[in-house]
Design goal:
Length: 458
């Protein structure tokens, strides 16, 4: 066997191995995208079969197929990054062992009735003049076959008909709005369509998906579009705003300034690089001894630098204007906040006057004076009760004087030492005195002024 024959055989074997490995990887990826029932031949034969003519014949058969294919179609579109489905593409994507599902047309019609998918013509039915100027109205051309088939009484879904998956287009719209607000372009009131394409390349893989996502945002009042001097422009609602405002002359003026700023920055950078290049050439020529050519390059560098300085001054002017516009917008927001605060204060102070406040203060003072008079009256009542107790004590003293005999006079206290007293049977406390003491105790307790009598028996 020659070397060339051996080389050919080796190449064929290597290519066959690569094809087998590629096919195995693609089969593994394909199997990972489908549910476990995909490997069950008996189950898939039932799911690939056509639907009954009427659901009432076998509801379980009908609903089982719908429940299997509907989420599978949506997941298939989500993995592809698309928001539209086409029957012909679905047949090829779900081909299994040479067979295609026979009931996908019925599944799509069921999804249309349930609102999960919608024809592009219906989805883009309420486009405004901005969209029509963009040429988005061309989306209404493709569903013509559907309209003709409906008029002819055919219930089939055309193979090339495109349907919008509502949940997927809503997901794309929300992701697009979040990407705009998180980007540096969020400070721009208007964006060109090319800038938006670059910003959303990881969200919307093609222009059709981007337009459908923008249509959904327009339905949600977060986007408006316009065409200015042949350029497609998009305006998003800012954070905290419920809806987007129409494109105004101020927005267009700011957009022109921002575009001029970008062009001037690019031009200044190019001129700077050109001036630096001239300087490097002048250095190299000077080393080679070509002084005249070096001087010529150096003069060219100076001219480029002067031009760059002039453009840089223009750039600074444009940036100053943009800063003033931004500050004016901030001042406008502050003034609006002040106006809102004044309106709130006016509402909260409605009916409140200085005269009314003075009347309220006078009423409060009168009530305080009345309270003081009441307290004084209550205090004078307590004094009267004290006078009654004094009268009672006076009466008590008179009773004591009547009950004590005249001969019961205490002896004079001796000045010299006396001997211990002798025990006698005489008791100085008479029954009348005991009775008077008990009476005086009761009276003093009643008046909260105890009257104490201290006596020592001999």
């Amino acid at each position: 066997m020659s070397r060339q024959t051996l080389r050919r055989s080796l190449l064929r074997a290597l290519s066959s191995c690569l094809n087998l490995s590629t096919m195995s990887v693609s089969v593994e990826k394909r199997d990972a995208c489908f549910p476990p029932d995909w490997e069950d031949d008996e189950r898939m034969a039932f799911l690939f079969s056509a639907f009954k003519e009427n659901r009432d014949v076998d509801c379980a058969d009908w609903d089982g197929k719908i429940d299997f294919w509907s989420p599978l179609i949506i997941d298939h579109c989500r993995r592809r990054g698309s928001v539209c489905v086409i029957l012909q593409e679905l047949n090829e994507s779900f081909r299994r062992k040479g067979s295609v599902p026979l009931g996908l047309s019925t599944v799509l019609k069921s999804m249309i009735r349930s609102g999960k998918v919608q024809k592009e013509s219906d989805f883009a039915a309420n486009v405004d003049l901005g969209w029509l100027s963009w040429g988005v109205g061309l989306l209404l051309v493709r569903p013509l076959k559907w309209t003709l088939s409906a008029l002819l009484g055919s219930g089939r879904v055309p193979l090339e008909e495109s349907f919008v998956v509502i949940d997927l287009v809503k997901e794309k719209a929300a992701a697009l709005l979040a990407a705009y607000r998180a980007s540096p372009l969020a400070t721009h009131s208007l964006l060109s369509f090319q800038e938006l394409r670059a910003l959303s390349s990881h969200i919307c893989p093609d222009e059709s998906s981007l337009c459908l996502a923008l249509l959904q945002l327009q339905r949600e009042k977060h986007v408006t579009v316009s065409l200015h001097e042949g350029e497609k422009l998009v305006k998003f609602s800012q954070a905290g705003q419920g809806r987007v405002s129409p494109v105004s002359e101020v927005d267009l003026g700011i957009y022109q300034l921002q575009r001029s700023e970008k062009l001037l920055e690019e031009r200044v950078e190019v001129l700077g690089q050109e001036a630096e290049k001239c300087k490097q050439q002048a250095k190299s020529l000077l080393k080679e001894g070509k002084k005249s050519q070096a001087l010529r390059c150096l003069r060219g560098s100076k001219r480029v630098e002067k031009k760059a300085d002039r453009l840089f001054a223009q750039l600074e002017t444009v940036k100053g204007i943009l800063d003033r516009i931004a500050n004016s917008q901030t001042d406008r927001l502050v003034i609006q906040a002040y106006q809102a605060g004044v309106a709130a204060l006016r509402i909260s102070l409605k009916g409140v006057t200085v005269e009314r406040a003075e009347n309220l203060v006078d009423q409060i003072q009168e009530l305080c004076d009345t309270q003081d008079e009441v307290n004084q009256t209550l205090a004078s009542g307590a004094l009267d009760s004290g006078e009654d107790s004094e009268e009672l004590e006076e009466e008590l003293r008179s009773l004591l004087e009547k009950t004590i005999p005249d001969n019961d006079v205490l002896p004079v206290v001796p000045t010299h030492p006396i001997s211990p007293p002798r025990k006698t049977g005489t008791n100085l406390v008479t029954p009348a005195l005991k009775k008077a003491i008990r009476y005086s105790t009761r009276v003093s307790l009643h008046c909260n002024k105890p009257y104490q009598v201290f006596m020592k028996s001999p």
